[in-house]
Design brief:
By secondary structure, the chain is of the alpha/beta class. It is about 35% helix and about 15% strand. It is built from 19 helices and 22 strands. The chain has a 6-stranded mixed sheet with strand order 1-2-4-6-8-10, covered by helices on one side. A 6-stranded parallel sheet has the order 3-5-7-9-11-12. Strands 15-19-20-18-17-16 form a 6-stranded antiparallel sheet. A hairpin with a 6-residue loop joins strand 13 and strand 14. The longest helix is centred in the middle third of the chain and has 43 residues. It starts with a helix and ends in a 13-residue tail after the last helix. Bound molecules: adenosine-5'-triphosphate. Adenosine-5'-triphosphate binds next to strand 16 and strand 18.
Amino acid sequence: DDDQNDFHGEERDALLALVSGFNNSFLRHNWTSIMCYKNDPPYWFGIECWNGRVTSVRLENLGLTGEIKIDALFNLTELSVLSFKDNSISGQVMDFSNNQKLTDIDLSGNKFDGPIPLSLLKLNSLASLQLQANNLSGSIPWFDQTSLKEFNVSYNNLSRPIPNTKVLQSFNRFSFLGNPNLCGPPTSSNCNSTNDTSDTNNDNNKSKGSSKSSIFVPILLAVNVVVLIFLLFLSIIYFKKYKGLKKKLEEKHIVVEDEEKHDRMRIETGEKGVAAEGEEKGKLVFINEERQFELDDLLKASAEGLGKGNFGNCYKAMLESGPIVVVKRLRDLKPLSSEDFTKQVRIIAEQKHLNLLSLLAYYYSKDEKLLLYKFASNGNIYNRLHEGKGKPTRIPFRWSSRLLVARGVAKALEYLHQTTKSSPNVVPHGNLKLSNVLLDENNNVLVTDYGLTSLIAAPLVAQRMISFKSPEYQSHKKLSRKSDIWSYGCLLLELVTGRVSADSGPSGTNAVDLCSWVHRAVREEWTAEIFDVEIAVQRSANHGMLKLLQIAMRCCERSPENRPEISEVVREVESIDLTPDSEDDEEFSSMDRSLTDESMSATPSRSTIGEDQP
Ligand SMILES: Nc1ncnc2c1ncn2[C@@H]1O[C@H](COP(=O)(O)OP(=O)(O)OP(=O)(O)O)[C@@H](O)[C@H]1O
């Protein structure tokens, strides 16, 4: 036991040192007092323990910045899972020499730079290594541990040939995408005779042929000079031809500049059949065959950036003839032919429901893929819920409106689940979160961004879509329609608590793991703190809020089989009375926080949560 205590102290100090380097007040406040006690559930956010030793550190999407010391993990010798996914941590990747029990490492979506550390090669239990979307450079080390089943280094600055080990060659090219200087199989880029291959063989060559090289040096130099002159000659010819071709193309291309100066939208006027010979023509296709405008009109429209999404940027385009549309420029797509793209988009377009934002049109060319939607003028629910909180200009987001959102989203989801009935293991929406729920000019609730899983490259989908953050994906890498139910549960929890969920909120926000937080809050009877003050003051509706909270908690159950089916959810959400926001409530809203808390103490506390209300 003494030994355990010693370790416990060292591990605790190591973690406190780690967190002091991050600029994060949530962790600083949460990581206080006892860390782990025997096999009790962990006390600190993101930490798991076994026999009082730290086995898992999972700090994802918390907006963490700063660097981690190379030896930060030195004392965590029982560590098996480490994830700093989707933060903004910079500096070199730490040393893992002392962490022989690591099975899962996820540092994806950060700003780590420098090389991939060689200490990783010695981790013989390592099963999953996720380093994608960082700034790592240098070559990929010779990973050959057979335990390694998942590996992703895409979107870094890695270079040189991918080592020819059985393990590395067993992963497909998506694991290596987005490293312009990486070459050789499994990627499709050839290493040829560039310095790539020579670099890795350098050491061998140096020792072997030093005497021979003295004879060859002058000959090689002469050959190099001739080759250089020849290349120069070729590039002059090419440049002249290219300039001519570019001029021709520019006459037939339109360039739209958007707000972000570096991001240019270039679309061929394919409709008129003027795409360069051999190039694929672009097509703007309207779903309902009612052609509202031409591509030219869209390109002439004034545009405004709406935001940078996970799968592309969105623009609001105001056409001269009146319509306002949203253009979503898709990026990181699967390599799809025009036919495949059209087929997948048609599937999305066929989904039609009052609470779904239907697709208006799409555009496909070799370099550009766009989806066009109607502009929802009252914005998204994430902003409605969180923007301007505590400011005098804030218009409260009242209970009845929140309940209508909960109903609309549930019905949209029910429709998506019904229309995909024949494939029980698909996730019909996949990316259900508050920024994907919109309000149109009549405040109709419209769910958007459904069905994109079929278009986006698999590793990026897994990294960015909310359903992939569900407990079953984290532990078993399995998804089902119940993962959508989990996302819906998280969405409801945000609506009733007014807090940002770590799984769906943008990075940098003060987000919490809402499912765990609420379960703990209920367990520990923090009744007054659960509900968002803005609705908690509406006492006549407290009963309905409690019911919605119960539904949310069931949807967030860790094991998918314990979560309800969507039809049951719809029935239950619809059975909650839509009490109009009464004038009494308005009076309450102007009262101070102490009164608010008193009013909440009138709500049924722990004993009634989790049980059916009379
Ligand atoms: N049709 C629309 N009308 C009004 N606003 C929209 C529309 N479509 C998207 N938006 C808003 O534009 C912004 C960017 O949307 P986008 O879907 O690209 O990103 P996101 O929802 O933040 O993340 P993700 O890519 O994971 O869905 C969001 O604030 C979204 O609510």
